[in-house]
Amino acid sequence: MLTVAEALQKVQDCVAALPPRVVPLEQALGCLTAESIASDVDSPPYDKSMVDGYAIRYADLKDGVGELRFLEEVTAGELPTVEVVSGTTTRIMTGAPMPAGADAVVMVERSKELPTGHIRLEDPKAKPGQNIVRRAAVMSRGDAVLPAGKLVTPTVVGLLAEVGCAEVRVVPRPRVAVLATGNELVEPREKPAPGQIRNSNGPMLAAQVMRSGAEPIVLGIARDDRESLRTKIAAGLETDLLVLSGGVSAGVLDLVPSVLTELGVREVFHKISMKPGKPLWFGLRKGADGRMTPVFGLPGNPVSSLVCFELFVRPAIAQLAGQPLPAEPQYLAKLTEPFTHRGDRPTFWPGRREQQTAGSIGPSVQPLRWQGSGDLRTLIDADCLICFPAGDRAYVAGEKVDVRPFC
Ligand code: AMP
Ligand code: MG
Predict the structure, then answer these.
(1) Total domain count for the chain?
(2) Pocket of ligand 1 (CB under 6 A)
């Protein structure tokens, strides 16, 4: 059986970034740009006023004071119609283009309208050029403003909009199909009949997909029969990645691996040395366009699904998006209480990290009273997984264990 690290390496070796695609700007958030972007405008496009005030010739102020004849008013979006000649002023609003002839703006707070219609301005600290941003001070038309390979954040969206990119070439958001399997499953809105349980994995995995920055395609529930599995899996193979839950263990109705193989998905590995999650299945399907679609068959127990997604599917989604995750964020913490680990596989045990206080020396972690892979409820209190190595061992309080943040 592969170790977790070996299995993860295989996944990483098999998954490549999606081919770039042009998407509407509104859909680009979180994606990686796949082209460098040049501005198609000067910013600002004209000399503009930074304040509401009066555009003047600086030379018209004597000791910071002037009484000037009012010409016109220009608001943002309008164009000045007359030149500011000596002895005159134009009222100008923030963002409006400077009128010809003017070389400074005095803030409206430093002005007074006189009964004659003249404007009295008092600005003892006035300087030529004040309160004006010059044309193209921020960027010139043709400037490269964004390189390829940049993560699209809200700031980037704003800049792209400013430079006229209503569409942008990016590594697209992966589309990830989620398919739950099991004859016992009913949808969450239904009341389970005897022998039935609700499909909690479907919504949970779709949420994990979303949190990974991908788009979930929810395929509902497939029954444990070949026909139902074939139809739903075939639909899932049309997406960028398919995640199934259930049907990958050794039961008589665990048909997922054989149906996947039948549909041309080549097995890369089945079963890994870990708890929970041992029956994990991973394979690749070569599409008509030559691209490989990764397929994960996660064990059906909810916590197995949850943990396997976190350990293997999330990194795969990140690779599809061209944004490989950094190495596992693991660190050492002290157990707050004794703990006995039993088993021949490494275990990812839900834990809760203690708040660091001024007096505490290093991080510590409490192993939760967890009932095993069917116990999702206890995970509500978890904020990490404690990684116990294989082998029976009684740990004492204060011993250091590996902790992996998780929520
Ligand atoms: P399986 O991997 O199909 O053998 O399922 C293992 C356990 O997980 C069984 O107790 C199933 O009833 C349960 N299970 C399977 N699929 C789901 C699901 N979608 N939601 C909740 N529990 C599930
Ligand atoms: Mg099943």
Answers:
(1) 4
(2) 180, 182, 184-185, 197, 199-202, 245-247, 249, 251, 254, 299-302
